[in-house]
Amino acid sequence: MSDNEVSMKVNGSTVSAKLDSRTLLVHFLREHLNLTGTHVGCDTSQCGACTVHVNGIPAKSCSIFAVQLENAEVTTIEGVANGNDLHPMQKAFRDNHGLQCGYCTPGMIMQAIDIARRYDKPTEHEIRHELEGNLCRCTGYHNIVKSVKAGVKAIHDT
Amino acid sequence: MYIGEPVLRREDEKFLRGKGQYVDDIRLTEPIAHAAYTRTPHAHAKIVNISTNKAASMPGVLAVLTGRDWLDAGFGEADGVWPVKDKDGKTANTVNRPFLAVEKVRYVGECVAMVIAEDRYQALDAAEAVEVSYDVLPANAVTSKALDEDAPILHEELGTNLVLETHHGNKFAVDEAFSKASHITEVEVPSNRVTACPIEPRSYLGHYDPINDQYTFWSSTQAPHIVRKYFTNSMRIPEHKLRVIAPDVGGGFGMKLYHYPEEPTVLWAAKVVGKPVRWTGTRSESLVSDTHARDHFTRGKIAFDTNGKILAMSFRTMAAYGAYEGQFQASIANAYHYCLLSCGYDIPAIYAEIKGVYTNSTPVDAYRGAGRPEAVYQVERLIENAAHELGIDPLELRERNLIQANQMPYKTAVDITYNVADLPVLMTKAKKLARYDELREEQENLRKKGIYMGIGTCVFFDMAGAGPTKMMNELGAKIGCYDVASCRVHPSGKVTIFAGSHSHGQAHETTWSQIAADRLGCDIEDIELVEGDTDRVPFGIGTWGSRSLSTAGMAVAVSADRIIEKANKLAAHMLECAVEDLIREEGGFTVKGTDRSITFADVADAAYHRGDRPEGLEIGLEETVFYDPKDCNYPSAVHICVVLVDPKTGNVTLRDYTAVDDVGTIINPMVLEGQVHGGLVQGIGQALMEECAYDSETGQYVSGTFMDYAMPRASDLPSFALDSYTTLDPDNPLGIKGAGESGTLGAPACVCNAIVDAIWGLGVQQVTQPMTPRKIWHAIQNANGN
């Protein structure tokens, strides 16, 4: 169990740490940086509650070692809003009742923001396919799909 | 008016920003130690020896604890809260789940030892280093075999695997009806074993303050006051010494209601090591240790007369209890379950024999629907097969047997009375929304092209809002089933509501505030809701069983009404008029016909600081209500769905799903729809893909991770078409009925019937849940004689 030094940017700020090489990115975020918005919901990379952005692309933080990310730029759910103003995708989830217990929500939003990056006008079928890697047990996905559709539109309209 | 409006949720901001506080997020001023559990890999074995030395000497390890240590500490058990008497009036063969096994293990994953270490990784490493030697025994996890002569007996002192046998309805009337029947349909209608899988695993954090001899316990639970009660039995901590906090909880679905092995042991460990201790389950631990659900092996029979009217139904059920009796389980399998066996139909005679049995598997207990999805499934599958056998359209056959509006209140053949509903209206609305007539046409056209489309339906009541305490006691409950709310008006006129319910996604912060704001006549922004803390909320029974609106929600309404009654008296005194001359306007009080008025805030301030008051009116403005409902309530629904089955692969596409619900007064239609959506998908998951699978030879648990336990994904599902119809519940002033479990009750029946409808013409009459592609493909092959 060696101590490894790593330095990366998280939500725009540089952070450095000496870590056990086994430390998962999700544990680094939650336990070392106290960014508890990224959640753990499984142990086989299925549920997507741990989804963050690494260098602008969604990644499951349960499946990356923190020490792999030297000089990477990580964005978590805490880094998505613009100060007091919610990100349009966050607003869309609120306006469309896209969350109930809130546990899968950060991962859903991180994935949804990336859907907006890659699609101009995704169909329902495309949105549902893009959400395959994010499990929700509360909402039945119906309103999450509505939220993503509305959020993508809001992002492209601004 | 807030009630009836789709008010956006007030609790969303923190969740959207990742600022929720789930138990694993809690940070204290001192470092928190971590617990990990050594779990048995065997389904059934004697524990020969547990050696903890190696584990205890590993880096960072603070303690290693076993079941022997628990007994030496003089602690107790996870006693049941809802014992049910058997058919002869005797108590059940109850054996509670031990917290840490001592002499035997009886299911894969049972806890054998506990390690507490400074960090999570050290605890996990050391838990693997605890050395346990076992004498492995034969195991049985197959429910239908539990009472076979050669079935391994789990609890030798009992000499049997029978927990409890109950009989319901009228066997004589049923036998008579069957002897006169013109048509009888018989089907095996088992319900598969599933588990709740909230995305947040169970998590507990224990803290002991030796200076004040005070315990604090954070629990991912649905019922903090009930957890506090559990501790009086297990660790024998009196209630005034323990604060239980349920912060944000990431889904519960009935599973997060029990005193699991990890719960009291975490608090015990905190005392032992002198540091706060936390355990958060991994998903593989959750899948094997969270209570499982359903797992009924049932054979059903239904009798019809020459006009397709149902004469009687009869069921023989073996209900899996798992390795130990769950704390609510008897009420699920042997009480709640039979209560809905009439579904939405006028059935003169029903008889059910239910045998609860022990098997080498995870204990079974309540999960959204709790015994009632099994009932709806049994009845609806029988009617579906009968319709096809008789050559009558499945909806037509159901419509012939629907309980009519003029039959309400309707006393069923299992002695439960449905009070208000209009099922024919629900059916008409559902058929219209689903475009049923066009669907049958489409089905025929597609069949000509070799495409197998199926249409499924179900009609049912739920029994929600448990319940009047006296009635629940008579059914076996050892806890009250009311709920509690305190309405505290502060001197500034702002309001805090303390409620004994606990929202883990159900939006109480919004809906309870809607109710209070309407009853108080104030702005919703002036209200704050507190739930989930036994130090702040006087008492509560927690959120489960679609009960909170008709118990806690009503307590909120009544406490607000009492506030206004008092405020009126004080306002009238301040305005020197009679109470009858007051008008409530914009939240204030005005004397009729004048412009003399005062604000609600004026009255609130006077309530605390003004000595000049009406004779006998006590100072202050706070009311606590323990609201005991007059009856359970009976929401109803009709579902219609469409599937496409590919006979070459067995693959099922769920194309459309329509649900029309009668839940009485709707407080927030947006929240209601969300609850229906969520329940539907859990029911669809049970129908199509979910299964807690055990190896039939060894009892080894096979669905160990999300790689094997199939969870419904967005890509598996359509969007839903919902509608509602309101008949007011007569027993509560708001006319409300519960709604949270409706989806899980109907979807398994509806989806499975659609599949049967699709492939009946291929010679398939029976597929069991989950109706996976493999099972459907095999059924089609077997029907073709392949």
Tell me about this structure.
The complex is a heterodimer of chains A (158) and B (786). Chain A has 158 residues and is of the alpha+beta class. Chain A has two domains: 3-79, Beta-grasp domain (Ubiquitin-like (UB roll), Roll), CATH 3.10.20.30; 88-157, Orthogonal Bundle (DNA polymerase, domain 1), CATH 1.10.150.120. Chain A is built from five helices and five strands; from the N terminus they run E-E-H-E-E-E-H-H-H-H. Chain A has a five-stranded mixed β-sheet, covered by helices on one side. The longest helix of chain A has 16 residues, at 142-157. Chain A starts with a strand and ends with a helix. With 786 residues, chain B is an alpha+beta fold. Chain B folds into three domains: 12-137 and 201-250 and 256-289, Aldehyde oxidase/xanthine dehydrogenase, a/b hammerhead (Aldehyde Oxidoreductase, domain 3); 292-466 and 631-783, Aldehyde Oxidoreductase, domain 4; 482-627, Aldehyde Oxidoreductase, domain 4, CATH 3.30.365. Helix content of chain B is 30%, strand content 24%. Chain B contains 20 helices and 29 strands. In chain B, the strands form seven sheets. In chain B, strands 3-5-1-13-10-11-12 form a seven-stranded mixed β-sheet. In chain B, strands 7, 8, 9, 14, 15 and 16 form a six-stranded mixed β-sheet that branches. Chain B has a four-stranded mixed β-sheet with strand order 19-27-28-29, with helices on both faces. In chain B, 59% of the residues are buried. The mean pLDDT of chain B is 97. At the A-B interface, helix 2, helix 3, helix 4 and helix 5 of A face helix 1 and helix 18 of B.
